[in-house]
Amino acid sequence: MEQIFGWPGLGAYFVRAAAARDVPALQASALVLGGGFILANRLADVLQILIDPRSRRSSGVHARAPRRRRDGAGHVAATGHKADARTETT
Question: Is this prediction's pTM over 0.85?
Answer without folding.
Answer: no
